[in-house]
Write a structure and sequence with these properties.
The chain is an alpha/beta fold and 385 residues long. The protein is built from 11 helices and 18 strands. A hairpin with a 5-residue loop joins strand 5 and strand 6. The two termini are 23 Å apart. The structure holds flavin-adenine dinucleotide. Flavin-adenine dinucleotide (FAD) binds next to helix 1, strand 2, strand 3, strand 15 and helix 5.
Length: 385
């Protein structure tokens, strides 16, 4: 066996799986360690969105060009497939020339993104070591994609069955989703509803209750067999690319996350791809990421800082503006461009988000809220033995 072509990958999420698929296709012997006995156990069969507004190229074309097949549920949702509601409860419909996002499922169900990527990894010959939690690697090269290690933003929601037709709804209102948003996604008899919080985690239950009331006030929807879930994401003010030359960090574990709204899947897949490319073509991983992911990542932090300063009045203003465009994709994309103003805000926000977002208000004792379960865990360092 050619030992120079032996790679250890830790974590079978979108980042680790993408890196595995690409390296394996290029003839590398990939050992992929996953702490659980299946993929996607961080998730709950909930629907998420592959955003399609921040790049000129369509997201599905980006994935296909990387060599990732679309063998999972991936349903396009255009602007006119749903609505947005601001705090004033005005129903806003936006127009798009292409899908606003692709609805995907997360978890271990047959059609999930996680299972689709797993199938591609198996087909390309990746050796998957299930139930193996790896906290250190003896010999590099290795790629670590172990997901978030702390909660900078949390989500509380439910998945349920419903007879309602396919629809999406986005809600902006600090009373139900502080500095974030709540969302409903319905697809072929299944639905996900959740509210996201970038602050005041200890009142997660209160916001969730209010968000559900808000949903019920704008839509009649049956909720069959509801199952609650909680989740969290983390982002860094600057990504952590590697530890020595031997260990590359990918996905959310490296801090590749959309700091504005938590749309991290595309970053996870792309960083997995660039890690694989850097090994195959002996390129500098940090350089590749800084060139291809850096500008958007930095702007997303600047956008987070700006968004966090919006009041409810600001949300209503933004939505009423978006409603007027013939196509909201170009103006949305414009906000991800690295302009001089965004560069200045990035420098400010880098300082603001220097330390982890710690919810000092959380005084819960013996509590099982999303924050208590995850937020207090410091970001884990991956060791080289
Ligand atoms: C509720 C919720 C909704 C979201 N919605 C969206 C959305 O709509 N759009 C979007 O783009 N993003 C969304 N995100 C974010 C997105 O899910 C993540 O950014 C993405 O999954 C990150 O992928 P990853 O591969 O880095 O990590 P993960 O998907 O977390 O995968 C990490 C894997 O590593 C394994 N692992 C961890 N530690 C070890 C270890 N020591 N040894 C072995 N294995 C280990 C884990 O078990 C897991 O399988 C959402 C997140 C949440 C919580």
């Amino acid at each position: 066996m050619d030992t120079t072509k032996q790679i250890t990958i830790v974590g079978a999420g979108p980042a680790g799986l993408t890196a595995s698929i690409i390296l394996s296709k290029f003839g590398y012997n990939v050992n992929l360690y996953e702490q659980n006995n299946n993929v996607g156990l961080r998730f709950n069969g909930d629907f998420q969105g592959l955003e399609n507004w921040s790049d000129k190229e369509d997201t599905l074309d980006i994935l296909k060009n990387l060599g990732v097949r679309i063998n999972f549920l991936c349903q396009p949702y255009f602007g006119n497939d749903g609505f947005f509601y601001g705090p004033n409860l005005k129903k806003i419909k936006v127009k798009t020339s292409r899908p606003l996002f692709y609805l995907i499922e997360r978890g271990s169900n047959e059609n999930s993104l996680d299972r689709g990527l797993l199938k591609q990894a198996e087909e390309s010959g990746v050796n998957i070591l299930w139930g193996q939690k790896l906290d250190a690697v003896k010999d590099g090269p290795a790629i670590v994609g172990t997901g978030p290690k702390a909660a900078d933003a949390i989500a509380k929601g439910m998945v349920f069955k419903t007879s309602h037709k396919n629809i999406f709804i986005g809600f902006l209102d600090n009373k139900i989703a502080p500095k974030a948003y709540a969302y409903l996604l319905v697809n072929n008899g299944k639905a996900t509803f959740a509210t996201c919080l970038f602050e005041d985690f200890k009142n997660e239950g209160l916001y969730y209750k209010r968000a559900l009331n808000r949903l019920d006030s704008v839509l009649t929807i049956d909720k069959i067999e509801p199952k609650e879930f909680g989740g969290f994401v983390n982002f860094f003010n600057e990504p952590k690319y590697s530890k020595s030359d031997r260990i590359l960090y990918v996905g959310e574990n490296a801090g590749f996350q959309d700091a504005l709204w938590g749309f991290g899947i595309k970053y996870a897949v792309l960083s997995g791809y660039y890690a694989a490319q850097s090994i195959i073509y002996k390129q500098d991983y940090k350089e590749l990421c800084e060139k291809h992911l850096g500008p958007k990542l930095k702007t997303s932090l600047a956008n987070r800082f700006l968004f966090a300063h919006f009041t409810n009045y600001g949300y209503s203003f933004i939505l009423s503006k978006l409603e007027k465009y013939d196509d909201v994709i170009p103006p949305l994309r414009k906000h991800y461009n690295q302009t001089n103003t965004k560069r200045i805000f990035y420098e400010i926000s880098k300082r603001r988000y220097k330390s982890r977002l710690i919810d000092k208000q959380c005084l819960h004792k013996n509590c099982d809220c999303v924050w208590c379960r995850h937020g207090k865990t410091a970001h884990g360092e991956f060791a080289v033995n």
